[in-house]
Write the structure tokens for this entry.
Amino acid sequence: MMKVAEWMGFPYAPHYQECESQYLAYETEVLTEILDYLENRENNPGENIVVDTTGSVIYIGEEILGRLQRYTTIVYLATPPEVQEQLLNAYISNPHPMLWRGAFSREPDETNEEAIARCYPRLFFARKRLYERYADVTIDYY
């Protein structure tokens, strides 16, 4: 079975945008199923459930994010700049699925890796604002 990261590829891959859209559709489908379960669990009100989402959860749309806020406590794990640098290096050396949502661009004189290194901090900053917007609780990394 192909790994999701291999299937999705880096944001400069020709097929990336199509895979990104499909990945988000799958994530939306799974979260909808989880939220439907949470809405209908009146028979087990004491049941403790952790929903561990991907970082791209912020892109699934207001309706689902609103439901997530209604039925869960959203925890944002804040990531300091030095850890973001480590995450960038890990992403380049061992890619994982990541939704760039148009935040990647390559200048004419850049390599793909240089463009990722330039765009990654901007992606983190844009996501940070959204994470903070939806979070009920923020936990610092340290």
In short: The longest strand covers residues 75-77.
